[in-house]
Amino acid sequence: MVDAEATPPAPAEAPAKDPIASLAGQVRHASTGTLARLRRFHPEAHPQAALFDAERLLLAAGVHPRDAQQRQRWALLLHCLALAQGRHDTRFDADPGAVLARLRFGEARLRQLVEADASVLASLMPRLARRLAAAGATVNWWPLADLMLQGGPGDVPGQARADAARQRLIRRYLDAQPRTDETADAAA
Known about the structure:
By secondary structure, this protein is mainly α. Helix content is 61%, strand content 0%.
């Protein structure tokens, strides 16, 4: 017998949408005009160039920047995803440190990337995205996004995520490097 007074079970909460995966998917399915505008514009040099397209995609991904600086950082990430043809993968083997090591990305360039401040990152990240696209590489953009999205010295949680991302990039890069005899001897 069914109890008429029983309340239906509460629906399970939907998992939070991954904004980077959402943005990457939207970039992969964007019109050629939208994609061209997103690839051409640079959020620091020409912040208004693809404003409509960037806002539309950010809203669809559930990204609601709290201020103009955060909006500019998300626009930079969107620009990089467009340059990388929307290739985003969260699998372990797509970790950017390991992918960069496989692409023979120089240690000095990685050092420059992880030690860069926001303005230098704004010029390095599009170059990195172009290199990844040219190689046909797919990476997990979250560690790179954590570097780009940090809010500066006053953003303690963002700074902690950026520091963790830097360590992860370095660790995975070094783990993926081929071991030489000197390295093997030092580890023993």
